[in-house]
Design a protein that fits this description.
By secondary structure, this protein is α/β, with parallel strands linked by helices. Helix content is about 50%, strand content about 15%. The chain contains 16 helices and eight strands. The longest helix has about 35 residues.
Length: about 425
């Protein structure tokens, strides 16, 4: 009886031998192409010819299996081969023209290249990826022509990108967890054509689950006229209807009426105003020559070890700046109740909730994807690009969604603070 290590070693040796053989074949083909002056890609290129040969061989083998006899053998009664039909297929290396075998009965249904399919491999994935990066349908058509020599039409590119609409609709209505320790909400303005081009807010909600995973819970394109608490109430109610029964902390911008909208949806939620936005808004009330001093004087306030210490530092700040910028100081006083909650937590949790930068980094990608376009031709076009941007994972880069580092320690602190509301699974 052969032992497991022996079988494993034998399998590994066979795989290595197959890989060496493929490498040798590839080397011979490349060398032959150089000798004959044949290009690797493009019309009449080596890879196109190789793809044609592989597809036609696979289709011929499928037809043999379907008919039950080899090509050239005596033909049995009944169904039989009936020549070929030319077909042009788009592949990762461009267009390839192949001959598809037929049978007399018309019952042959190839699996390698199904009937009516004219695109293979990653063609659709490539188009969708380019669309997610902000390229217009015209840009994509030109890119395919430059790289692959492929004369795809704008209509074809539009049909390919429309394939994501159904998945996007399902994603927008998917069920959510019952409890989220933290939800971050923010909005970004995009130019969208609806009769005429207008700035419209895209409302974005990002949740951090009990497993420490950041995920975009929803995106909504609002009407023109700017971000509003009334519209946020509608979006938050939708999240609740999709299963979110309780949220411990909601981090948001200092929008008038927004804390009330949050507490109307989740009465026990603590509302945390984004400190970065608060500091940024402070500078709107001040002359540019004072920006450096104001930000330096505010830092001891939002980095204080406790709410009481922050109050003492703010009193010093107010004493200095109230005579010069009374509206600035009044803004902080109005926002104080929503500013201080994060000061009750250790640094690890403060970093999660004191700013909506988790969404800001996602918004930055949204801007990159929309900048090339200038404006979106429709609401659906805008939402498709944003949806694909959310799903995109960039290698060797920090992604807006994903696992929170050091989550177990954070979760323990949250569980002590919120008790039974944090139902650790």
């Amino acid at each position: 009886m052969t032992s497991e290590p022996t079988r494993t070693a034998t399998t590994t040796t066979a795989v290595d031998a197959d890989r060496d053989e493929l490498d040798a074949v590839a080397d011979r083909l490349v060398e032959q192409a150089r000798t004959d002056g044949v290009a690797l890609t493009g019309p009449g290129g080596l890879l196109g010819g190789l793809t044609k040969k592989v597809l036609e061989t696979a289709l011929a083998a499928e037809l043999t299996d379907h008919l039950g006899y080899e090509h050239g053998d005596p033909r049995p009664d009944g169904n039989a081969r009936n020549g070929t039909t030319p077909k042009t297929v788009r592949t990762d290396i461009g267009q390839v023209r192949i001959d598809v075998p037929r049978d007399r009965a018309g019952s042959f249904e190839p699996a390698v290249l199904p009937k009516h399919v004219r695109r293979l491999g990653g063609f659709n994935d490539a188009v969708i990826s380019l669309y997610a990066k902000g390229l217009t349908t015209g840009d994509i058509v030109n890119h395919l022509a430059d790289v692959y020599g492929d004369s795809a039409s704008k209509e074809l590119v539009s049909r390919v990108t429309d394939q994501v609409t159904e998945a996007m609709t399902e994603w927008q209505s998917r069920p959510l967890d019952a409890v989220y320790p933290v939800i971050l909400i923010d909005a970004i303005m995009l130019k969208v054509r609806d009769g005429q081009v207008a700035n419209r807010p895209v409302y974005v909600a990002m949740g951090i689950s009990l497993d420490g995973e950041r995920d975009v819970l929803g995106m909504w394109l609002g009407p023109s006229g700017g971000e509003g608490a009334k519209h946020w109430l509608s979006m938050l109610t939708e999240l609740k209807n999709r299963g979110v029964a309780d949220v411990c902390i909601v981090s948001c911008v200092g929008l008038k009426g927004l804390p009330e909208a949050i507490n109307a949806t989740w009465p026990q939620a603590v509302v945390q105003t984004c400190v970065v936005h608060l500091v940024r808004n402070s500078l709107r009330y001040a002359s540019k020559k004072h920006w450096g001093r104001i930000t330096a004087d505010l830092k001891p306030v939002y980095t204080a070890p406790s709410a009481k210490a922050a109050e003492a530092r703010f009193a010093e700040f107010a004493e200095t700046w109230r005579p010069v910028y009374p509206a600035l100081v009044a803004m902080w006083e109005r926002s104080w109740a929503e500013f201080i909650p994060f000061l009750d937590f250790p640094v690890e949790i403060r970093k999660l909730i004191y700013t909506t930068n988790g969404i800001e980094s996602l918004n930055s990608r949204f801007r990159q994807a929309s900048r090339r376009r200038g404006h979106f031709p429709s609401e659906q076009a805008a939402m498709k690009v944003l949806y694909l941007t959310v799903l995109e994972r960039r290698p060797n880069r920090a992604n807006p969604t994903g696992r929170i580092p050091g989550w177990k320690s954070i979760l323990n602190t949250l569980a002590i603070t919120y008790g039974d509301r944090i139902n650790i699974r």
